Amino acid sequence: VQLVESGGGLAQLGRSVTLSCVGQGFNFANTRMGWIRMPPGKAMEWVSDISASGVTADYEASVKGRFTISRDNAKNTVDLQMNSLKSEDTALYYCATGGKYGGNWFGVDWGQGTQVTVS
Predict the structure, then answer these.
(1) The predicted structure's pLDDT at residue 103
(2) Cα(42)–Cα(47) distance, integer angstroms
(3) CB-based contacts of 23: which residues, under 8 Å, 6+ apart?
(4) Which of 21, 29, 76, 79 has the fewest CB atoms nearer than 10 Å to its CB?
(5) Number of C-alpha atoms within 13 angstroms, CB side, residue 68?
(6) How much is the pLDDT for 104?
(7) Using CA atoms, how far apart are residues 87 and 109, in angstroms rounded to an integer?
(8) What 3-state DSSP class applies to 44?
(9) Measuring CA to CA, how many Å separate 87 from each of 12, 14, 91, 97?
(10) Distance (Å, rounded) from C-alpha 96 to C-alpha 106?
């Protein structure tokens, strides 16, 4: 499994950033995908995930309405559009394969991460 994230960097408060992830080495179209993040000095936290078909998506409460996850199974990509950025969105963002158990996300594999710094 290989997951490669891109699109991070320095972003201004209130502006937008789109993260992208390309997945290889697994059946992408049959895999639930997610984004997780690690804020500085804090534990990893789930941000969003999307079903294999792309029909359903879930969001952590603090990003709901601001972030949008999407995927293109033809290109093996999953994106995270992040709008109205806040300082608390500063984190290392990881793309991950995973699933749901009891309604809760669990990750299986993840990439190297891409840093988003909001200032």
Answers:
(1) 87
(2) 14
(3) 1, 2, 3, 31, 33, 76, 77, 78, 95, 97
(4) 29
(5) 9
(6) 92
(7) 27
(8) coil
(9) 9, 9, 9, 26
(10) 9
What is the share, in percent, of the chain residues with pLDDT greater than 90?
97
pLDDT of residue 33: 98
Q: What is the pLDDT of residues 40-71, one digit of tens each?
A: 999 999 999 999 999 999 999 999 999 999 99
CA angle 105, 41, 61 (to 5 degrees): 40
| Residues in CB range of 112: below 8 A, 6 or more apart | 4, 5, 94
Q: CA 71, 11, 75 angle in degrees (round to 5)?
A: 20
Query: In 10 A of CB 59, how many CB atoms?
Result: 18
